[in-house]
Specification:
Rossmann fold; tRNA (Cmo5U34)-methyltransferase; methyltransferase; transferase; Methyltranfer_dom; binds S-adenosylmethionine; three-stranded antiparallel β-sheet
């Protein structure tokens, strides 16, 4: 998907994600932010002078939530995004955000091989990317994107990827996307491609899902991910996973 497609989704993005009242989405996001918070808190206990950089920050959901939880003014937050409309929403929300840290949104393409040049390279940054954003990056640009994350993290940094659970695409994808209609706008008869684990529709939304082993291999990590478990009808299902790569 290109940034023009995301421009047209921005107005409805929050309705589908952080303002969504569906318990499934509420519980998913709550669990995801708890896991990210724990990882960032642990990192900040042993590292000083680092930034938290959110790649594909959208309207700023993750950086705003983490700033409120961490309450550590020495951490600088950066959100990287290339959709002007997403950036406008994020900057608007930043005006009324009640946090402690400095939060800045930057317009860059995550897959640009020059991206690390635009950052002050500290050696223990946390570089994260959430809500299956890797799945909207074209396949021929994925490696550039992951390499950028590792370089910007620095030699003692952390790379964190939050991905939907591609090992259970057939169950999880319909539950998630049917709860996010304001953003995806439409579900077609052939929207759920279980063979390739792709959700797509005829108005241009497309997101690929990956298995746990595929992500471990793309990230170059042997660490098992932390599951984002959500209870549906009294049963617990893994809707997503948080993958961590310790760069050192
Ligand atoms: C699924 S949304 C995730 C937003 C946010 N991280 C969240 O968790 O709510 C993906 C975001 O990545 C952005 N994005 C996609 N490809 C990008 C690229 N190549 N460069 C910069 N941003 C990109 C889109 O504009 C969109 O805002």
């Amino acid at each position: 998907m290109d940034n023009k497609s995301w421009d047209s989704l921005a107005a409805d993005y929050d309705k589908s994600v952080e303002d969504n009242q569906n318990p499934l989405i509420i519980n998913y996001l709550k669990k995801e932010i708890e896991i990210l918070h724990t990882l960032c808190q642990k990192h900040s206990d042993s590292h000083k002078n680092f930034s938290i950089i959110d790649m594909g920050a959208g309207t700023g959901r993750v950086v705003f939530a983490l700033d409120k939880k961490l309450r550590n003014e020495s951490i600088e937050f950066l959100g990287v995004e290339n959709s002007d409309t997403m950036l406008d929403c994020a900057n608007q929300k930043n005006i009324s955000h009640d946090g402690l840290s400095e939060i800045t949104f930057l317009k860059y393409d995550l897959t640009d091989s020059n991206l690390p040049r635009y950052f002050e390279l500290k050696n223990s940054n946390i570089v994260m990317c959430s809500y299956n954003t890797l799945g909207v990056v074209p396949s021929d640009k994925r490696l550039n994107f992951i390499n950028n994350m590792k370089t910007i993290a620095g030699k003692n940094g952390l790379v964190i990827l939050t991905m939907f659970n591609g090992d259970d695409f057939g169950f999880v994808a319909p539950k998630l996307y049917r709860s996010m209609i304001p953003m995806i706008k439409q579900i077609d008869d052939d929207s759920f491609d279980e063979t390739n684990r792709v959700f797509h529709n005829s108005i241009g939304f497309r997101s690929q899902w990956f298995t746990k082993n595929e992500i471990k291999s793309i990230l170059g990590t042997s660490l098992e991910p932390i599951p984002i478990d959500v209870t549906v009808d009294d049963k617990c299902f893994t809707f997503g996973n948080v993958f961590v790569n310790v760069v050192a």
